Amino acid sequence: MKKIVLLAAAGMFSTMLHAQEAFTLNGKIDDLGEPAKVILMYAFDGKRVTDTAELKAGAFSFSGKINKPIQAVITVVKSSANPRMNFGMGYGGEIIGRDGCSFYLDKGNITLNGKTIKESTIKGSAAQDDYAVLQKARKPVVDKLTAISDEMKQYATDREGEAYKNLYAKLIATMKENGPVDNAFVLSHPNSWVSFNVVTGKSIISNPKETEESYKKLNAALRNTKDGKEFEERLKIAYTTAIGATAPDFAQNNTEGVPVSLASLKGKYVLIDFWASWCGPCRAENPNVKLAYDKFKGKNFEILAVSLDDKKDAWIKAIADDGLPWLHVSDLQGWKNVVAQLYNVRAVPQNWLIDPNGKIIAANMRGKELEERLAKELH
After folding, report:
1. Which ranges does the record mark as transmembrane (predicted)?
2. For 132-148, what is the mean pLDDT?
3. Over the chain, what HEC string results?
4. What is the pTM of this model?
5. What is the pLDDT of residues 329-369, one digit of tens each?
């Protein structure tokens, strides 16, 4: 097997430091009739592991060491396929664009059997058994999200139109329906690493109080791990940027190298908007932000956008291409952006709305939500 270890992307949680234990994964799917490789990917010890095995007559095998149950992705790449072809993940964690699936690696012997990877049955991983229960519980919401997403495709060329915007708003609202499903799973599986990941794995902690309540429902053994202690530190930071808190002040240089501070905008409603030129969802959201800005820019409202770019040219080009006339700052340090760390930003787009007194009054608004909130505040 050929194993490659890469630095983990921002937002990946670290693994706890205790004895590593071995795992084996033996799989069997239908013979593809041509050479193919199976790729296994997972995060381990703060790094991203990509392991490759030859598919021979439909059979493959992996082995390694982990120190806790870890969510992984396994896919097949045929010799006739473009090895660089992209694949995505659906609303239920399903793989799109390749034959593959997401599942939980665990210590011991794991087997995967089926006509294809997608249709396979995975045995030997207790965490995977829990994950299957969660996926089944989420399926009604996932089906609704998929249907809405499919409907949106017909309006993809007119994202400024009401039909697309209404469906987008419906999509965002439907996503929130997973909350009660996840909470019920955590409550019934307090000893599961799957529950731990449901609670702590979110890149955005929108409501630290609710998140802490869910976290405390987990078994003490999980909470006392290295991962648990690190998450508790994230929670502390999340409270400093929660609704009702005073937004932490900061200053960074604009595109001309001149410092711009949040404090200099006190007395105005300010949207702190974290984004990046390379972030597809950010660029897709920019038209919604622009509509709100154009409507309220003369009514004591300003936007201070913090970019997680590391290349100035790409940052400036994206501002021009998307026509974003508001304030822009960055230290061009990518995910290590000092302001992003101050606000515990692990995913973009992410935003906070600040009132004239510097208090946070809303966060992570999408679609029409910003415009609707500003209409209430600036009527």
Report:
1. none
2. 96
3. CEEEEEECCCCCCCCCCCCCEEEEEEEECCCCCCCEEEEEEEEECCEEEEEEEEEECCEEEEEEEECCCEEEEEEEEECCCCCCCCCEECCCCCEECCEEEEEEECCEEEEEECCCCCCCEEECCHHHHHHHHHHHHHHHHHHHHHHHHHHHHHHCCCCCCHHHHHHHHHHHHHHCCHHHHHHHHHHHCCCCHHHHHHHHCCCCCCCHHHHHHHHCCCCHHHHCCHHHHHHHHHHHHHHHCCCCCECCCCEEECCCCCEEECHHHCCCEEEEEEECCCCHHHHHHHHHHHHHHHHHCCCCEEEEEEECCCCHHHHHHHHHHHCCCCEEECCCCHHHCHHHHHCCCCCCCEEEEECCCCEEEEECCCCCHHHHHHHHHCC
4. 0.78
5. 999 999 999 999 999 999 999 999 999 999 999 999 988 88
